[in-house]
Write a structure and sequence with these properties.
alpha/beta, Rossmann fold, four-stranded parallel β-sheet, 22 helices, 8 strands, globular
């Protein structure tokens, strides 16, 4: 049984000295036994000949790169970074990370066309786009979904006309937070990392998270924060990602040192703080390791509370729905089991049907690109068909870009699991759930 204090008090710095010292991800290719399990698991290889497969691009081509030889080709850019290969590999080769670092080398060497460089730089900066678009949300949303604008973006930048661009919210999460008065006398504190999607596109997710945490006795602290940097990492823009990661460390680390943990509703953001940024950037300062050791996906944290008998579940209201749930790739990469399903199954009258699909296809910014859009749709097709078979009025997914992809492909709204839990706790129900509850 976990002690209560172990859940929300900061954990010590991980010792990486001696035998436990960090090894660059490229060295893990030595573990490859050429079994081809990763190729079988890869959703991109299954639908496209443009990507020859994880084994060929990571361990095999990686040996050429380590010898400072040219890589066989640039098809590594068709790796979506979904990490299905990592999860399947029986020997622990860091395939997706090796491919991501190879993509960075391509970008650094000028191997990307000018218009695609511009596109990638735009897609990789959701915080900048949010600051520009959200203040004029109605106009920005109109322009982004205007057919001539999408045609222009496709022809000039290579942004797919059918890509699921999200709508800017009329109000940011931070502006809502500043005007609310939290309950007094909450006995514990916790830090919330909201991410760009909650700030600029889906403030309702942050409101739901705060309601659930306060219902369990936590005062929620929301310090200044930057984009987690994952879009930059996914597009090979490592220098800018390093600056963003350091900015978040500088902002968050004092709270960890005071004994608080970080939780987030964007499972890709929390994975980036935990693992992606440190591994891809070789960013293993003491503060970076301490932050990583004390960052949790929100449902991971709630499941720890549940295990310790600290999660309040006595008076949950019924949510009489039968819904399809998809665990996104970045959530699976946490290797923490199925905490969202575990928590949702506590809600009376809610039936969750789990997807067995590997990936929705979007992979962050991957499916927004014209040269990869059809691949993304083909990868996601089994999931879209599953959601239609379940037939619920909404679907459920932990990742924002996956929700947007699923909604666009199925014509059904998609919600975060925390929204269902917040409704069960009695929070004001917001659209799209408000239309069905």
């Amino acid at each position: 049984m976990l002690k209560t204090d172990d859940i929300w008090q900061a954990q010590p710095v991980i010792n990486l000295d001696g035998a436990h010292a960090h090894r660059p991800v490229e060295l893990s290719l030595e573990n490859c036994i050429k079994c081809n399990i990763c190729v079988t698991a890869c959703p991109v290889t299954a639908v496209s000949e443009k990507f020859p497969g994880p084994k060929y691009e990571a361990p095999q081509a990686g040996r050429f790169r380590m010898a400072k030889q040219p890589t066989p080709d640039y098809s590594v850019d068709y790796c979506s970074g979904c990490r299905a290969c990592n999860l399947a590999c029986p020997t622990g080769v860091r395939i997706a990370e090796i491919n991501a670092r190879a993509r960075h080398d391509i970008v650094s060497e000028g191997g990307v066309a000018w218009n695609h460089r511009l596109r990638n730089n735009l897609l990789a900066r959701p915080e900048l786009l949010g600051k520009l678009g959200q203040p004029v949300a109605p106009l920005a949303n109109l322009l982004l979904n205007f057919a001539p604008s999408r045609w222009f973006a496709d022809k000039v930048l290579g942004i797919a006309p059918g890509a699921p661009l999200p709508k800017f919210s009329s109000r940011t999460f931070s502006s809502w937070l500043k005007k609310r008065r939290p309950p007094a006398g909450l006995p514990r504190k916790i830090v919330y990392f909201h991410g760009c999607s909650t700030e600029y596109y889906e403030p309702r997710v942050g409101r739901a998270a705060i309601h659930v945490l306060e219902a369990n006795g936590f005062e929620v602290l929301v310090p200044e924060q930057q984009c987690c940097g994952l879009p930059l990492l996914s597009n090979g823009l490592f220098d800018a990602a390093r600056d963003q990661h350091q900015g978040n460390i500088d902002s968050l680390i004092r709270y960890v040192k005071e004994g608080y943990v970080i939780v987030g509703t964007s499972t890709s953001c929390t994975l980036t703080l935990k693992e992606e940024a440190p591994e891809l950037l070789d960013f293993y300062s003491a503060d970076a390791r301490l932050l990583a050791a004390n960052t949790y996906d929100l449902h991971e944290f709630l499941s720890l509370l549940l295990d310790a008998g600290e999660l309040h579940t006595d008076n949950l209201r019924p949510v009489p729905l039968r819904l399809a749930y998809h665990a996104p790739c970045q959530f699976k990469a946490h290797r923490i089991g199925r905490p969202s399903v575990e928590i949702m199954r506590l809600i009376p009258e809610l039936t969750i049907i789990e997807s067995e699909a590997t990936c929705c296809g979007i992979a962050g910014t991957y499916g927004y690109k014209s040269d990869k859009y059809q691949i993304a749709m083909d990868v996601g097709r089994p999931l879209f068909e599953f959601i239609h078979e379940v037939g619920g009025p909404v679907s459920v997914c932990d990742s924002e870009t996956c929700r947007w992809q699923i909604s666009a492909a199925t014509d059904l709204p998609s919600v975060h699991p925390i929204e269902l839990l917040a409704a069960a706790y009695g929070a004001p129900v917001e659209a799209p759930l408000a239309d069905i509850l």
